[in-house]
Design goal:
The structure holds two protein chains of two kinds.
Chain A (H helix, E strand, L loop, with lengths): L1 H41 L3 H41 L7 H28 L1 H33 L7
Chain B lengths: L2 H48 L3 H41 L7 H23 L6 H32 L1
Helix pairs in contact in B: 1-2, 1-3, 2-3, 3-4
The chains are: A mainly alpha, B mainly alpha.
């Protein structure tokens, strides 16, 4: 639960940082790159148009990763918080419940952080982000198995887990 | 149910209804016009550039930027109101587990609710002409949210350490 609130807080801080330092700059760049594109096209300057198009692609990429990181870390925070309510119904040992929770939190931090680093470090960071996502999926599967064991115990006539 | 939980749950639901109603109003009365404006000013800009009329091209691009600026803030406010409402509701379910006294929990819930309303409102008001007021409201609102969340996270950490 505390981890979930921390993730939401982290997402908020990152969103605030983006709004204060990047949002206006991105909007100004958007207009200036489009101006360069249209001016270059009007002047039949193919290299200026090519450069403006490349800059525009980079700008869109930069925007996309920052917004994706902000949204993902907050969503993972909410997911962690909600999953905390279901822990009494995860029929696993306390040690394994803690391990899955730690893996969930690790993946929830790793994915958005590595997504942010994708622009600078490319595929390596992208691969690590994917690995973070895989950790989240694995931890959810682990908890899902625990919940199945719990409901299986309720359904079985003797009340014992097979 | 404690006052702080009630405040978060009822306030969160109201905020969700408000955010959705705002989105509905925006979609019906403003969004299509805004998107038409964005698309047409961008295409006008390129058309004028092709006609070798740089002044008209730049003017159309400025119109595109202005329309995009307002559109992004309207959509951001709508999504943040609803997202924050969900956060308030989820926190409201477990708020009694935050290990502070009733009074402190109530003030925390109030700060969170107020911040969740004021922050997107400031974003909407960040239109040209009143940008400073909007920005001040947005910063104050997000400050309230960040502060409350930090205190709540510390409370959960404290409770875990006690366990």
């Amino acid at each position: 639960m505390g981890g979930g609130v921390l993730l939401v807080l982290l997402g908020f801080l990152h969103g605030g940082y983006y709004a204060l330092l990047d949002l206006d700059r991105h909007e100004a760049l958007d207009a200036s790159i489009l101006t360069a594109m249209t001016s270059g096209a009007a002047a039949h300057d193919a290299s200026a148009v090519t450069k403006a198009l490349a800059d525009y692609g980079n700008l869109q990429g930069d925007k996309a990763v920052k917004i994706a990181a902000h949204a993902h870390v907050i969503e993972f925070g909410l997911l962690s918080f909600i999953l905390a309510f279901f822990q009494p119904y995860v029929d696993l040992s306390a040690k394994w419940k803690l391990r899955w929770a730690q893996i969930l939190l690790l993946g929830s931090v790793m994915l958005p952080v590595c997504v942010l680093l994708e622009i600078r470090f490319g595929l390596v960071a992208g691969g690590l982000a994917d690995f973070g996502g895989l950790l989240v999926i694995l931890s959810l599967l682990g908890m899902w198995v625990g919940i199945l064991r719990y409901t299986g115990r309720l359904d079985s006539p003797t009340g014992a887990t097979r | 149910m404690s006052g702080s939980r009630k405040l978060l749950l009822v306030g969160g639901l109201l905020l969700a209804i408000w955010g959705m109603s705002y989105g509905l109003w925006y979609a019906v009365f403003a969004e299509h016009q805004a998107l038409d404006n964005i698309g047409s000013s961008l295409s006008t800009s390129f058309a004028k550039a092709a006609e070798r009329n740089p002044a008209a091209s730049r003017a159309a691009l400025q119109a595109y930027s202005a329309a995009q600026y307002v559109y992004i803030r309207q959509v951001d406010a709508h999504s943040h109101w609803i997202g924050l409402a969900m956060l308030l509701i989820v926190l409201g379910i477990a708020f009694d587990r935050v290990p502070y006294g009733q009074s402190r929990r109530f003030w925390l819930a109030l700060a969170l609710l107020l911040g969740s309303f004021v922050f997107p409102l400031g974003v909407v008001l960040e239109n040209p002409g009143r940008a400073a007021m909007g920005r001040a409201l947005a910063i104050a609102g997000s400050g309230l949210i960040v502060f409350s969340l930090a205190v709540i996270a510390a409370g959960f950490a404290w409770a875990r350490a006690d366990d």
